[in-house]
What does this fold into?
Amino acid sequence: MTEESHSIGINAKQGKQLYKALTATIDELFQVILDPDMQVLRSVLKNQNLNEDHLLALLKRHDLTEDLLKAIYQLERFKGSHRLKVALVKNPNTPGPVVVALLPHLHLFELVDLCMIPGVTPDQKFAAERAIIQRLPTTELGNKMTLARRATATVVGEILKGGETPLVEICLNNPRLREVAILQFISGATSSAETLSIVARNSKWKLRPNLRLAILKNRRTPPIWYTLFLPQLRIPEVRNLLASRRLNPSQKKLVQNELKKRGGG
It folds into this structure.
């Protein structure tokens, strides 16, 4: 077979597949959408028998091109399908602008699930986290509690930053929470005597030296934590603490007393 006839054979075969993509029945389309040729799949989108189930099956493929995914997004007759919006967002090849346009249509915990699925791209995860954080001010307490248990480190850190007492313990028990987020919370304006005590009592975090020092440097920290934590600090650390301008007068007195006990005052 010559190169020319071989090329004609390929084109004829492709033409047959393109025609089938345009005319296939509902049942036949499930087989056609497995075709590796993106041109064939573009033709599938023009088939009048195409329905939501076909597209959902197609969107499970991770080899689709950005152009094809844009074409699916632009299909007018499926604009109202929530399931397709979710499937498009979850496909790792969906272009960033399409993902950003679709995220506001997703439910809160669909966004959380998107952050957790294997293969999610960093851009998709970042966009989903940002969408969740934007909704936090209007999210009910019960949903915030669930988020505090399930969400990513970035989202949990943002919830903790809000300083709502019922949420602090839940955030602290989230295995994804980072120490830096707790340090930011302790030093921030939303921490209170009660929430600082919650951190100081937490079995996972109470032994972290950086967190203990941050708690002792907060002027809202109750005296009990000076009584418990100061004896475990080295004398240079106690002296540095005394030099801090953040302490209130009664806290300074407790630190001075600790130094005197050790003969370092």
Notes: The chain is about 65% helix and 0% strand. The radius of gyration is 29 Å. The CA atoms of residues 133 and 155 lie 6 Å apart. The mean pLDDT is 93.
